[in-house]
Write a sequence for this structure.
C-alpha cells in the first residue's frame, strides 16, 4: 500500500502559509482566502482518501491495524541512537485525527471567507490558519515524540498568533501572551518528560515505545525518585504538557481568555483540534502509561474528572457566550482525559480509550458547530454577551436550527452522536471507579443545563430591541454550519470499536442501557430546568444567584484561580525574584566591579602624593633607602 | 596561496581602501564591497572545506599553513581550520556584512568608524583561523581594543564609562589569559624548544598540578568574554552604549570567541583539570542561565533586555561545553551560531527602532507593528528564535544541549539541567512582554504614523540574518551533522582519562 | 704612603664630608648650596677612591684615575647645573627648591 501522497497533506498548508505570508499583501485579499481554502480543500479530500484507504483498503494485518510509516527522514541527530526524524505515521488514531483536523479546518476556512470579510489583515489571517493547519496535521502524524514536541510548539505559536490577531486590542495581546506562556510552562514538563523517557529507553520512536517489546524499559524500571519510578515521573511530566495544551486544571486559565481571538479561530483551535492535542498525546503514549506508569494514569483520570466538573460549574454562571462554550470545551475534554485514565488495554477493557477517541471525534463536530454558530450570532448582533441577545430564532432560522442540534447533541439526547460516545465514557468510568462515574454523571446533567441556558437566552427569552435588525449569515457561513450539523448527528454511527482501539484489535461494543437511560434522563432534567428558567424572562436565575451568595460569586469569578496566578506571577516572580536579581546585578555584582575600579583610582590618588616634586624630599628618601639597603646587606645578607 | 590568508588580507585591504576615499558614501561603499567579498570568501571556504572532507582529507585541521614568524621564541603564524572554526567564520562574515548595512547611516567620522569596525573583524577572523596560541592571542587583543574607540566615540549614553568598563574587564581577562598561555608555553616541552602550537600542545599530557593551576586562568580568561557569571557586567553596559553594528558584532561574534577559546584552548589542552573543575563552572553557568533570564524580565531598556538575554544564552554555551560529551558540545557550537545570528538580528532591529523613536525605553513605546511591519515581523522572528521555537535555529541548539546534558547519569548534572531548561519559560516571558509592549497594542504616539518602514539596506541586513536562522531551524542536519570531525577529537581527549 | 696617618682617619674625614653633603642636600633650600653639597659628596667619594688606591693597592692607579674622572664629570655637571639654575632663576625669579616643584604627579 503506497501512502507517499500523504506528504502533500503537510506540504500544501505550509506552501499556502508561505504564499500568503510573503506575497499575500501583493494581491487582493480574496486571493489569499481562496488559496488557503482551496489548499485546505485538497488536504481535506486527501485526508478522507487516506482514511478510506487505511481502514477499508489496507485494513487489518494479523487482526490488528498496523502502524504504517509513510515517510521518514532524519532531521536532527543527537546521539548515535537518539535522532529526531520527521515523518508521517499512519495508525487508527492519527488517521482519525487527520480527518477531524482537515474537516474542521476546511469548514473554518470556508466560514471565515464570510466572517472575516473586509477585516484588515485578511491575508494574515489565512496565512496563520494555514500555519496552524500545517502544525496540527504534523502533530497528529508524528512518528516520534520529539517530532510531536516540535509541532506541539508550532501549534502553540500559531495559537498565539491567532489569539492575538487583533493585535491592537490590549486584551487580545494579553490573552495571547497568557495562552503562550501558560502552555509553554506546561511544555517544560513535556520536555523534561521526553528527556527522561528518551534517556532510559534510548528512543523517541512511538513504534518502539508503544510496541509489544517492553525490554527497552528495563534499564529505568528499577530506578525511582522521591518514591515514584522514573517512568511514572516521565509520564506525569509528559501529561503536564498535555494538560497545558488541553487546558486541564490547573492550566485551564488560558482557554477562556483565548476567546479574544476571532471566532472561527476559537472554533478550530480552541474547540475542535488544538485543545484535544493533550488527549491525543496521552492516547498516543497510552501503552507506555498503561504498562509503565499506571499510577500516572490514575492521576490523569482524576485530573480529567475534576476539570470536567469544575468547568461545568463555572459555565453555568458566565454571560459571554464564547466563554460558556470555552468552559464547556474544558468540561468535555475533561471527559476524554478521564476516559483515557480509566481505560484498560485489551479487548473490551480498552473501552475507555475507544470512548475517549470517539468523544474526541464527535466533540470536534458539535463544538466547532457551536462556535461557528456563536460566530454567526456575534456577527449579527455585534456583541458577545448573552444579555444583549434574545429572541433571535425569528431572525436567524438556519443558525437557530443548527445551534439547537449541537445543543441537543452535547446534552446526550439519544441517537445524536455524543449520546453514543458519552455513553461509552460513562460505561468505562462505571467499571473503573464509582466516584468518577458519579461525577461524570452529574456533569452530564450540568452540561445539558448550561447549554440550554445558553440556547434559550440567545434564541428565546426576552424580545430584545436591536439597533439594526439582525440578519441571517451569508451562505458561505451557513453552509459549513449545515455540514457540521450533519456531522454532529451522524458521527455517532461510525463503528469506533471496530476501528480505533487501544491495542489495535477490534472488539464488540454495545449500548449499555443500564447506564444510557439514566444519563439521558439527567440530561433531560437539565434541559427542563433550563427551559423553566430561561425560556421566558423570569426572575428565577437572579433569585438563585442571590440565594447562593458568596458561592455564586466565587464561581462567577472562576474560583479566583486567575487572581492566584496573577498573584504568583506579578507579585512573587516579578517583585520577589526578578527585581532583586536586577538589583543584585546592578549593585552587588556590578558594584563589585565598579568598586575595584574605585579602589584603584583612590589608591592611585593617595600614592601620587609621593611624587611631590620637592627635590629635598627625593633626596631624603634616596638617602634613607640607601641606608636601609646598607643595613640589610650588612646584617641580613651574609 | 592558502585561502585562509584571505580572511586577514581582505579586511586589511579594505581598511587601506577606506583610508583613500573622500566622504562617508565612499567609505561605506568600500566597506560593503570588502565585507561582501569576505562573505563570499567564507562561503567558498566552507564549500572547499567540506569538499576536501568528502574527498577524504583526514587531518584534524585543513588548509594548514605554518610560517615561522619569530624564531628565537618559536612563534609561528600557523593557520588551519576545523569544522567548528569554519562555521564560526561563516557566522562572523554574515554578522559583519549585516553590521555594515545596519550602520549605513553613520556619518560622523565615518571612515574611522568603518576602519575600526573592520579592524575588529580582522581580529575575529584571525582568532578563528589561528592555531598558534600567540597569534591567536594577538588577534584576540586586536578584536578587543577597537571596541574601546567604537563605543567611546560613536556610542550613546554613558559611553566613556561603558567603553572603559568593557575594555578594562576584557583586558583583565587578557591578563589572566597571558598567564595561562605562558604556563602552557613553558610547560610544553621538558627538553626541546617550547612551543605555542596548538596541535603540538594537544599531544602533550601536562602534569596534573600544572593543569590545576593554569586551567582556571584560561577558562576564566576566555569566560569573561563569554559572559561568565559574575564577570558579565560589562555586557549590559557595553552593549547598551555601543553603536548598532558594534553591539551586533560584539554580542554576535566576540562573545563567541570566549566560548570557542574555552573549548579550544582551556578544555582541549587541559582536559584533566577541566574534568576536575567542571562542577564549579557548571554551577556558575547555571546561575548565568537562570539569572540572566530573570534579570532580563525586569529591564526596561531594549538593549539591556537583550544583553541579559545574551548572558543567559551564552551561559548555555559554556554550560553545554562543560557537559563534555559529543551531543552537548555539538549543541554548544550550534548555540553559539544560533545566538550569534539572532542576537545580531536583535541588536540590528533595536538600532533601527531607536533610529525612529529615539528611545529604547520599552514603556514609552507601543503599537509599532502597525507602522513598521517589516521591522516588527523581524523582531517577532528574532524573539521566537530566542525563545526556542521549532523551525528557527534556537530550538535546534537548545534541544541538542539539553539532550546532551541529560545524558549524564548523576543527580547533580540532572538537576542543573532541569534548572537550565527552566530558562526557556522565563525567556518566553520576557520576549513576549517586550513584543507585547513594543509592537502590539494601540499606537502610542501620533508621530509614529510618519515612520518609514525598513529601507533597502535595513531589509538586506535583516534578511541576511533571518535566512540562516530559518535555514538552520528547518534543515539542521547540514550544520549539526558536520561538526563531528572537530568535536570527536576534543571529546576523546576530554574523556580519555575516565 | 703617608707616614703615621692610618687609613681610618682619612676615611672618617671622607665620611664626615659625605654626610655633610647629604645633610646639605636635604636641608638647604638654595639651589647653589645644594650644588655645593653635591660637590662635597663627590669629593668625599674622591678621597675614598684615592685613599683605597694608595693604602690597599699602591702598585695600581685605577682609583686615582677614577677620581680624576669624577672631578672632570663634576665640572661638567656643575656647569650644566648652573645653567639650569640660571634658567630657573630667569623664569621663577627664585632659586629656592621649594618653589620648583612643577614636575610632579
Amino acid at each position: 500500500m503506497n501512502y507517499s501522497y500523504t506528504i502533500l497533506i503537510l506540504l500544501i498548508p505550509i506552501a499556502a502559509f508561505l504564499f500568503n505570508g510573503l506575497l499575500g499583501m501583493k494581491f487582493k485579499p480574496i486571493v489569499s482566502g481562496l488559496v488557503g481554502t482551496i489548499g485546505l480543500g485538497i488536504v481535506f479530500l486527501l485526508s478522507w482518501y487516506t482514511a478510506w484507504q487505511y481502514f477499508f483498503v489496507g485494513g487489518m494485518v494479523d487482526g490488528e491495524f498496523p502502524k504504517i510509516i509513510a515517510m521518514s527522514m532524519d532531521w536532527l541527530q543527537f546521539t548515535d541512537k537518539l535522532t529526531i526524524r520527521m515523518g508521517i505515521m499512519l495508525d487508527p488514531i492519527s488517521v482519525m485525527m487527520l480527518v477531524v483536523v482537515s474537516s474542521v479546518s476546511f469548514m473554518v476556512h470556508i466560514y471565515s471567507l464570510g466572517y472575516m470579510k473586509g477585516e484588515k489583515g485578511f491575508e494574515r489571517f489565512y496565512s496563520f490558519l494555514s500555519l496552524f493547519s500545517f502544525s496540527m496535521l504534523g502533530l497528529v502524524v508524528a512518528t516520534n515524540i520529539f517530532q510531536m514536541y516540535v509541532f506541539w510548539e508550532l501549534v502553540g505559536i500559531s495559537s498565539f498568533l491567532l489569539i492575538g490577531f487583533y493585535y491592537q486590542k490590549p486584551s487580545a495581546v494579553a490573552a495571547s501572551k497568557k495562552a503562550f506562556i501558560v502552555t509553554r510552562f506546561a511544555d517544560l514538563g513535556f520536555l523534561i518528560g521526553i528527556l527522561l523517557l528518551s534517556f532510559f529507553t534510548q528512543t523517541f520512536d512511538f513504534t518502539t515505545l508503544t510496541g509489544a517489546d517492553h525490554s527497552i524499559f528495563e534499564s529505568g524500571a528499577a530506578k525511582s525518585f522521591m518514591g515514584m519510578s522514573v517512568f511514572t515521573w516521565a509520564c506525569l511530566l509528559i501529561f503536564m504538557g498535555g494538560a497545558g495544551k488541553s487546558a486541564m486544571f490547573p492550566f485551564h486559565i488560558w482557554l477562556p481568555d483565548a476567546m479574544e481571538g476571532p471566532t472561527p479561530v476559537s472554533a478550530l483551535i480552541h474547540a475542535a483540534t488544538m485543545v484535544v492535542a493533550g488527549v491525543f498525546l496521552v492516547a498516543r503514549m497510552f501503552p507506555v502509561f498503561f504498562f509503565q506508569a499506571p499510577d500516572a494514569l490514575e492521576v490523569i483520570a482524576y485530573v480529567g474528572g475534576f476539570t470536567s466538573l469544575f468547568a461545568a460549574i463555572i459555565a453555568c454562571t458566565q454571560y459571554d457566550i464564547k466563554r460558556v462554550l470555552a468552559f464547556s470545551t474544558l468540561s468535555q475534554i475533561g471527559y476524554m482525559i478521564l476516559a483515557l485514565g480509566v481505560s484498560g488495554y485489551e479487548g473490551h477493557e480498552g473501552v475507555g480509550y475507544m470512548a475517549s477517541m470517539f468523544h474526541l471525534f464527535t466533540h470536534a463536530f458539535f463544538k466547532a458547530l457551536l462556535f461557528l454558530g456563536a460566530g454567526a450570532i456575534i456577527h449579527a448582533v455585534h456583541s458577545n454577551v448573552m444579555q444583549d441577545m434574545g429572541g433571535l430564532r425569528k431572525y436567524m432560522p438556519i443558525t437557530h436550527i443548527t445551534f439547537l442540534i449541537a445543543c441537543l447533541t452535547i446534552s446526550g439526547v439519544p441517537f445524536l452522536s455524543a449520546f453514543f460516545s458519552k455513553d461509552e465514557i460513562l460505561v468505562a468510568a462505571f467499571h473503573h471507579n464509582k466516584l468518577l462515574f458519579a461525577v461524570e454523571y452529574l456533569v452530564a446533567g450540568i452540561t445539558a443545563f448550561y447549554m440550554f441556558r445558553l440556547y434559550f437566552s440567545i434564541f428565546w427569552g426576552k424580545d430584545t430591541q436591536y439597533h439594526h435588525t439582525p440578519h441571517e449569515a451569508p451562505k458561505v457561513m451557513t453552509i459549513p454550519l449545515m455540514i457540521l450539523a450533519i456531522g454532529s448527528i451522524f458521527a455517532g454511527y461510525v463503528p469506533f470499536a471496530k476501528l480505533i482501539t487501544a491495542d489495535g484489535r477490534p472488539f464488540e461494543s454495545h449500548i449499555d442501557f443500564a447506564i444510557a437511560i439514566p444519563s439521558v434522563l439527567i440530561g433531560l432534567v437539565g434541559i427542563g430546568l433550563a427551559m423553566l428558567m430561561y425560556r421566558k424572562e423570569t426572575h428565577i436565575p437572579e433569585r438563585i444567584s442571590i440565594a447562593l451568595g458568596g458561592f455564586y460569586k466565587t464561581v462567577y469569578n472562576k474560583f479566583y484561580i486567575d487572581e492566584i496566578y496573577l498573584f504568583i506571577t506579578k507579585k512573587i516572580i516579578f517583585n520577589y525574584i526578578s527585581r532583586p536579581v536586577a538589583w543584585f546585578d546592578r549593585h552587588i555584582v556590578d558594584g563589585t566591579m565598579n568598586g575595584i575600579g574605585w579602589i584603584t583610582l583612590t589608591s592611585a590618588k593617595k600614592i601620587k602624593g609621593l611624587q611631590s616634586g620637592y627635590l629635598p624630599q627625593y633626596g631624603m628618601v634616596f638617602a634613607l633607602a640607601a641606608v636601609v639597603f646598607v643595613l640589610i646587606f650588612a646584617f641580613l645578607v651574609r | 596561496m592558502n585561502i585562509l590568508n584571505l580572511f586577514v588580507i581582505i579586511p586589511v585591504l579594505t581598511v587601506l581602501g577606506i583610508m583613500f576615499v573622500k566622504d562617508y558614501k565612499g567609505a561605506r561603499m568600500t566597506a560593503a564591497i570588502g565585507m561582501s567579498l569576505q562573505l563570499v570568501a567564507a562561503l567558498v571556504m566552507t564549500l572547499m572545506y567540506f569538499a576536501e572532507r568528502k574527498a577524504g582529507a583526514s587531518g584534524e585541521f585543513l588548509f594548514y599553513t605554518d610560517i615561522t614568524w619569530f624564531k628565537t621564541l618559536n612563534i609561528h603564524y600557523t593557520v588551519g581550520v576545523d569544522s567548528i572554526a569554519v562555521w564560526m567564520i561563516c557566522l562572523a562574515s554574515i554578522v559583519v556584512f549585516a553590521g555594515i548595512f545596519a550602520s549605513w547611516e553613520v556619518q560622523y567620522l565615518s571612515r574611522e568608524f568603518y576602519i575600526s569596525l573592520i579592524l575588529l573583524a580582522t581580529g575575529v577572523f584571525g582568532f578563528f583561523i589561528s592555531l598558534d596560541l600567540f597569534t591567536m592571542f594577538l588577534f584576540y587583543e586586536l578584536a578587543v581594543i577597537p571596541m574601546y574607540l567604537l563605543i567611546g566615540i560613536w556610542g550613546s549614553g554613558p559611553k566613556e564609562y561603558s567603553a572603559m568598563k568593557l575594555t578594562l574587564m576584557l583586558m583583565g581577562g587578557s591578563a589572566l589569559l597571558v598567564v595561562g598561555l605562558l604556563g602552557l608555553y613553558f610547560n610544553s616541552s621538558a627538553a626541546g624548544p617550547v612551543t605555542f602550537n596548538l596541535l603540538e600542545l594537544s599531544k602533550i599530557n601536562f602534569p596534573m598540578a600544572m593543569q590545576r593551576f593554569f586551567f582556571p586562568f584560561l577558562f576564566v580568561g576566555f569566560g569573561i568574554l563569554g559572559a561568565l557569571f559574575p564577570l558579565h557586567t560589562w555586557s549590559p553596559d557595553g552593549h547598551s552604549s555601543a553603536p548598532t553594528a558594534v553591539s551586533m558584532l560584539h554580542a554576535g561574534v566576540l562573545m563567541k570567541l570566549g566560548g570557542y577559546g574555552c573549548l579550544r584552548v582551556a578544555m582541549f589542552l587541559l582536559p584533566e583539570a577541566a574534568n576536575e573543575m567542571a562542577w564549579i563552572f557548571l554551577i556558575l553557568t547555571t546561575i548565568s542561565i537562570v539569572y540572566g533570564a530573570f534579570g532580563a524580565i525586569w529591564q526596561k531598556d531594549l538593549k539591556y533586555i537583550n544583553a541579559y538575554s545574551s548572558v543567559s544564552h551564552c551561559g548555555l554555551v559554556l554550560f553545554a561545553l562543560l557537559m563534555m560529551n559529543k551531543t552537548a558540545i555539538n549543541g554548544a557550537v550550534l548555540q553559539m551560531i544560533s545566538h550569534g545570528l539572532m542576537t545580531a538580528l536583535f541588536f540590528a532591529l533595536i538600532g533601527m527602532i531607536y533610529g525612529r523613536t529615539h528611545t529604547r525605553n520599552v514603556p514609552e513605546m507601543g503599537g509599532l507593528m502597525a507602522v513598521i511591519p517589516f521591522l516588527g515581523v523581524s523582531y517577532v522572528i528574532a524573539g521566537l528564535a530566542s525563545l526556542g521555537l521549532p523551525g528557527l535555529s534556537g530550538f535546534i541548539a537548545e534541544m541538542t544541549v539539553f539532550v546532551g546534558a541529560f545524558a549524564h547519569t548523576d543527580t547533580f548534572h540532572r538537576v542543573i539541567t532541569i534548572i537550565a531548561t527552566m530558562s526557556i519559560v522565563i525567556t518566553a516571558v520576557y520576549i513576549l512582554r517586550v513584543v507585547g509592549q513594543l509592537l502590539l497594542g494601540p499606537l502610542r504616539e501620533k508621530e509614529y504614523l510618519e515612520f518609514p518602514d525598513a529601507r533597502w539596506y535595513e531589509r538586506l541586513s535583516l534578511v541576511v540574518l533571518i535566512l540562516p536562522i530559518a535555514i538552520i531551524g528547518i534543515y539542521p542536519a547540514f550544520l549539526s551533522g558536520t561538526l563531528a570531525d572537530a568535536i570527536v577529537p576534543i571529546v576523546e581527549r576530554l574523556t580519555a582519562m575516565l | 704612603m703617608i707616614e703615621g696617618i692610618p687609613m681610618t682617619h682619612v676615611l672618617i674625614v671622607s665620611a664626615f664630608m659625605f654626610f655633610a653633603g647629604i645633610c646639605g642636600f636635604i636641608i638647604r633650600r638654595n639651589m647653589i648650596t645644594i650644588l655645593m653639597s653635591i660637590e662635597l659628596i663627590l669629593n668625599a667619594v674622591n678621597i675614598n677612591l684615592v685613599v683605597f688606591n694608595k693604602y690597599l693597592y699602591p702598585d695600581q692607579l685605577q682609583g686615582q684615575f677614577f677620581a680624576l674622572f669624577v672631578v672632570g664629570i663634576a665640572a661638567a655637571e656643575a656647569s650644566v647645573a648652573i645653567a639650569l639654575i640660571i634658567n630657573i632663576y630667569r623664569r621663577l625669579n627664585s632659586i629656592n627648591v621649594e618653589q620648583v616643584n612643577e614636575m610632579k604627579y
Q: What stands out?
A: DSSP finds 26 helices and four strands in chain A. The two ends of chain A are 101 Å apart (CA to CA).
